[in-house]
Amino acid sequence: MKKLQLIIKREFLAKIKNKSFIVMTFLSPLLMVGIGFLVFFLSKKNDEKIKKIVYVDEYKLFAKNDFKNTKTFQYSDYSALGIEETKKKVEAGDYYGVLYIPKKENIEALAKSIEFYSKESPSMSVIGGLENKVESKLRNLKLDTFGIDIEKIEASKINSTIKMYNFSGEESSKLINGLKIGVGAIAGYLLMMFVMIYGTSVMRSVIEEKTSRIIEVIVSSVKPFQLMLGKIIGNASAGLLQFCIWGIILLILSIVSSSVFGVDMAEMQSARLSAEQVAAMKEAADVGTMQTLIQEFFRLPLVTIFMLFIFYFLGGFFLYSSLFAAVGAAVDSETDTQQFMLPIMLPLILGVYIGFATVINDPHGPISTVFSMIPFTSPIVMLMRVPFGVPWYEIVISMALLLFTFVFMVWFAAKIYRVGILMYGKKPTYKDLWKWIKYNG
Description:
With 441 residues, this protein is mainly alpha-helical. The strands form 2 sheets. A 4-stranded mixed sheet has the order 2-1-3-4, covered by helices on one side. A two-stranded antiparallel ribbon has the order 5-6. It has 18 helices and 6 strands.
């Protein structure tokens, strides 16, 4: 145990004293915030550019007040010029494009004949907005031909909200479910990022010691199992420390940017949304939705989520890091790791896809349940399920399987590690790895 502690301490101190580790610990949050400000700035600049759209309405479909100018769109009626003259003028001038509504014998033929001309490919949001305007107008004309009073139809529209409760009387809603999805998705994504960054860090550490021949001295006094376990725990400790520092720095930067510079992080996020989405968010905020969201967030089992997050966070990292360490011991350089990386990363990627494809739609379904038990996917899938409430026995089974698999994989990877760490000059194959596993010397 004392040797294991020394290895953990050595790996931890070697990691945190590394100049690149120190620089990236403090630089990464600044880069994240800087990218956020850049996106916010570019979005603002993009919104400031006015898109000039002209239309030629030969069918007399629209009235002049149907196209209203906004901060980003400016409409002009060029119907008197005709389509050919309008196209020439628009092509030579500073215009976004031309909407052409030809004269047709009926509404059905018109719906399939509307055209849009532009110098460059128009954005999907612009075309979608124009299509919505045209479809709404054509629909009203169609209803008018049927003798249906459009005003009565508009007056008959009513919004209905279904209140959701469980059988114990606890209230739920789509908003709360969205909050749970967000919490689970963030936890799963952080785990995947942590494994990819620090799992490969363990692999590089093993390769460096192997190529420098330091490992030959170390393995003479330490068992391969202890050495590999110490490397994994040491790197995990350094990684958790770095994540905690990132969280503190990001929190401080968000507070400072809001109070000193007057930048609202919610406003930065809304800059990426359409005008309709922003309006909906503001309307929701006006009726107290944000207050409800905050209240529901604190009603979540935060302590349970945090404890399970730490367990699966560390369990998933230890499991995958043992495999990364085995790969590092088997090869002589990082370029030789590519053939072994894909089989390790596939279960991790599968867990992310399963989480977003099934847990979001059916967190208690059979697929979600099964993959939250499989150790190679459970760290991600179970973390995404936990906010929705998971029976205690499923959590116990999942944790036990993950713990058992981790111990087994460390033992399994150590069999590759003890032979591969002293092998030089040969690019190993899967057949060689199998021989090393069966070796009992």
